[in-house]
Amino acid sequence: MLVVITKDGRRVYTANFGSDTISSYGYDAAGTLRLINGKAASFPKMSQPVDLALSADSRFLYLLLRGTGAVAAFGVKANGDLAPLGITAGGLPVADGASGLAVY
């Protein structure tokens, strides 16, 4: 999924394949969506972010980087900012159509 919404419905994150970034948005009860940070996280060119997943409690965000065969992990701060926790590479195909990410 290229878009995820936090459990409380207040934050939205998108994976941006073309710009190798994650964007963050605020979402309110009236259904208004506003950009908070167009580059909440950035990755090297051709990282190809293709899938996002939030943990059940929305405290952690994971991103599949198809271009490098890696998974990036972030802590989601109380204000919605992302705190990088690291990138794990290896064991996944690189730029070979890998997609799909499951998180519990």
Largest sheet at a glance? 4 strands, antiparallel
Strand elements, count? 8
Q: What level of helicity do the residues show?
A: under 10%
Oligomer: single chain
Order of the strands making up the biggest sheet? 1-2-3-4
Helical stretch tally:
0
Q: Give helix and strand order, one letter per element, not per position.
A: EEEEEEEE
Structural class by SSE content: mainly beta
**Mean pLDDT score, rounded?**
89
Q: Which value, in Å, is the CA radius of gyration?
A: 13 Å
Total count of domains: 1
Apparent shape: globular
List low-confidence stretches. none
What portion of the residues fall into strands of 2 or more residues? over 45%
Compact description:
Helix content is 0%, strand content 51%. The protein is mainly β.
